[in-house]
Backbone:
């Protein structure tokens, strides 16, 4: 199911922590293409995936909504 969330801040965090989309996907055990689809909004993130990404990127639980649940502005 496609979502209407914007992952611009998550993409910035990935870059600022020295990861590429490919290296992050490998680090969390996800296929590159799957992570791309999640970041493009074609597929929804699963809670376990969010937890892994937050652990790797050092995102505190309190900031999860700021990275994963920001609505796209039309």
Residues:
């Amino acid at each position: 199911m496609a979502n209407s969330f914007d992952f611009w801040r998550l993409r910035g965090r990935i870059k600022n922590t020295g990861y590429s989309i490919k290296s992050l996907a490998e680090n969390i055990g996800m296929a590159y293409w799957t992570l791309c689809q999640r970041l493009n909004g074609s597929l929804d993130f699963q809670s376990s995936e969010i937890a892994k990404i937050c652990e790797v990127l050092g995102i505190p639980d309190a900031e999860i909504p700021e990275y994963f649940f920001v609505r796209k502005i039309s």
Notes: The radius of gyration is 11 Å.
